[in-house]
Amino acid sequence: MGRGLSSPDDLWLAKPPRMLPATADRIREVVQYGHLVPLADALRRGGRISSPLLWGNAGSALAGAARELHAWARKNGRPEVGERALALTAELFRHPGLRTTGVLSRGDASFRRRSCCLYYRCPSGGLCGDCVFDRPPRRSSAQPVSE
Asked: Which of 26, 95, 96, 136 has the lowest tally of Cβ within 10 angstroms?
């Protein structure tokens, strides 16, 4: 993502990975090391952005994906699939890169971030569903307002 762009480019797998059983190590290899680490490096080369913010966003996305998979599995009579998704998610969150991003509830994959994505600072922004804050922080008069 270059300067001036408002959203990241789409992420694509160059070619489908071999079909292997889903393990936390395999998911981490393909997603975390294969995509998120290079994306984070590129974003930091393009401008100032906090590593904890990026990993907090990754943790939030992981928890959100697990919640959706769990809900889909329950709705479609496949509770074992939902439980497997939650188990893999919990294992992924034990990795040092994700462990500090927030608190994951194993029961329903709810998540509470430990970092702020700064959405509240966007025009018409607010708090995320997993926000670290209970209400938006007050801005000091010394902070410049971005346009």
From this structure: 96
